[in-house]
UniProtKB/TrEMBL annotation:
Belongs to the FAD-binding oxidoreductase/transferase type 4 family. One of its GO terms (biological process) is respiratory electron transport chain. One of its GO terms (molecular function) is oxidoreductase activity. SUPFAM superfamilies: FAD-binding/transporter-associated domain-like (SSF56176), FAD-linked oxidases, C-terminal domain (SSF55103). InterPro entries: FAD-bd_oxidored_4_C (IPR004113), FAD-bd_PCMH (IPR016166), FAD-bd_PCMH-like_sf (IPR036318), FAD-bd_PCMH_sub1 (IPR016167), FAD-bd_PCMH_sub2 (IPR016169), FAD-linked_Oxase-like_C (IPR016164), FAD-oxidored/transferase_4 (IPR051264), Oxid_FAD_bind_N (IPR006094). This is FAD-binding oxidoreductase. Residues 41-220 form the FAD-binding PCMH-type domain. Keywords: FAD, Flavoprotein, Oxidoreductase. The keyword Flavoprotein applies. Its cofactor is FAD.
Length: 467
């Protein structure tokens, strides 16, 4: 992987400052590290740097300031908004070698890790101490904690535990000037001025490079069961959610369509029902005693008797629970080969029924020729819309058609007080629609904050907004 003699003089000077730095200009590495899961831009980085320490990261940033080289921070690159794309001669700064657990504090129940560690490795490390890091989603094996923090990732358990920012006790960050900041020091209470830690969370690498994080851990959840529900119509979805939320302690409440199930089954999942139903819900909820198990059956029976569900199955083992979850968590992987155009939107839960009705009508009208796959975290107001490109369609024309519809969707979100990006970030993909979620005054303030923390404008330039 190492390129021992970079041709570019700027890279020669970087090598002179950091003789032990892993640095590559290999075309295969450039393609691999220069893009994320969007696959919409052709990677064209200057080089890829893979530092192994905070000092190396800080030195790279100071070199970039001196040389005027832009930097794209890189984690697992599982993002879906173009936030980790390097297409204009930037240096990709990959944190993948900085992937260790640094400390566990039993009293504070906190785990300090390097930013390149995979989410699944964090889960495993917390479990070794009898605790959990409760943020979770399907890309757990490949996404990194630094990337999760950069996008304030949510996932399948937001309804119970909230987003990433609720679990970040402290951060170590390298700013755009190459300064190393210790933010919040893992304090529970800290009213000493602005909380720059929270400012960094969700900033998509435009304000600083997260190099270490102290994560809050939680008690393991109570025993749970998983139930898959088949729904007769879209209109019953929020009624089913209300019925289950009223009777149970929900860990997750996920929705998907018959088209989503079709693609997951084609990808190898097990068929749950003999008949095909238009909509499905997979929900996980606390059990552990007879009263809670009775409440789960009461919720299902109420929905069945009132025509809100057609059928259902409840897990009888961990293996069956995993099979049911695969029907939801396998959607993104099953759709990947189609290069889908993705929307990731959110509204308040109270606004969800009206927004869903309007959106369903909008997509049916605007996408009659496309296979549209819906799924989402309905319990926290987050909906994912995947439009699949037909095999014979020109990709550029397909994207143009989808972006026209996204503008209409952005207008609908503005009417309902929603967001064009619930958990994937803005990146490049959503940048044209940011004004639908943020006011011009807010965006100008964000530009001002970036100028302070990244005075040369070298950290992930062009992402979120134009300088």
């Amino acid at each position: 992987m190492t390129d021992p003699q970079p041709i570019d003089a700027r890279l020669e000077r970087l090598r002179a400052q950091l003789p032990g730095l892993r640095l590559t200009t290999d075309p295969a590495d450039a393609e691999h590290y220069g893009r994320d899961w969007t696959r919409r831009w052709t990677p064209a980085p200057l080089a890829v740097a893979l530092p192994a320490s905070v000092d190396e990261v800080a030195t790279i940033v100071r070199w970039a300031v001196d040389e005027g080289v832009a930097i794209v921070p890189s984690g697992g690159r599982t993002g879906l908004s173009g936030g980790a794309v390097a297409a204009n001669g930037e240096l990709v700064l990959s944190l993948e070698r900085m992937n260790r657990v640094l400390d566990f504090d039993a009293v504070d129940r906190a785990l300090t890790v390097q930013a390149g560690i995979a989410l699944e490795a964090v889960h495993n490390a917390a479990r070794e101490h009898g605790l959990v890091y409760p943020v979770d989603f399907a890309a757990r094996g490949s996404c990194s904690i630094g990337g999760n923090i950069a996008t304030n990732a949510g996932g399948i358990r937001v309804i119970r535990y909230g987003n990433t920012r609720e679990w970040i006790a402290g951060l170590k960050v390298v700013t755009g000037a190459g300064e190393v900041l210790e933010l919040n020091r893992a304090l529970i209470k800290n009213s000493s001025g602005y909380d720059l830690r929270q400012l960094m969370i969700g900033s998509e690498g435009t304000l600083g490079i997260v190099v270490e994080a102290t994560l809050r851990l939680a008690d393991p959840p109570p025993p749970t069961n998983v139930m898959l529900l088949a729904l007769p119509s879209f209109e019953t979805l929020m009624q089913v959610f209300a019925a289950f939320r009223e009777r149970l302690t929900l860990e997750a409440f996920e929705f998907f369509t018959d088209r989503a199930l079709h693609h997951v089954l084609a990808h190898g999942a097990q068929k749950p029902f003999d008949e095909v139903h238009p909509f499905y819900v997979v929900t996980e909820f606390a059990v552990g005693d007879e009263a809670k198990e009775a409440a789960a059956m009461a919720a299902f029976e109420f929905c069945l008797e009132n025509g809100l569900v057609n059928d259902g199955v409840i897990s009888q083992s961990d293996a069956q629970a995993a099979q049911l979850w695969r029907l939801r968590e396998g959607i993104t992987e099953a759709l990947a080969k189609y290069k889908p155009y993705k929307n990731d939107v959110s509204v308040r839960i109270s606004a969800m029924p009206a927004f869903l009705a309007e959106t369903q009508a909008l997509l049916a009208r605007e996408y009659p020729q496309f296979d549209v796959v819906w799924f989402g975290h309905i319990g926290d107001g987050n909906l994912h819309i995947n439009v699949l490109k037909p095999d014979d369609a020109d990709y550029a024309v397909f994207v143009d058609q989808c972006e026209h519809v996204t503008q209409l969707l952005s207008d609908a979100l503005a009417r309902h007080g929603g967001s064009i990006s619930a958990e994937h970030g803005i990146g490049l993909v959503k940048k044209p629609y940011l004004l639908g979620t943020r006011s011009a005054a807010e965006i100008e303030l964000m530009r001002g904050i970036k100028r302070v923390l990244d005075p040369k404008g070298l950290l992930n330039p062009g992402k979120v907004f134009d300088a």
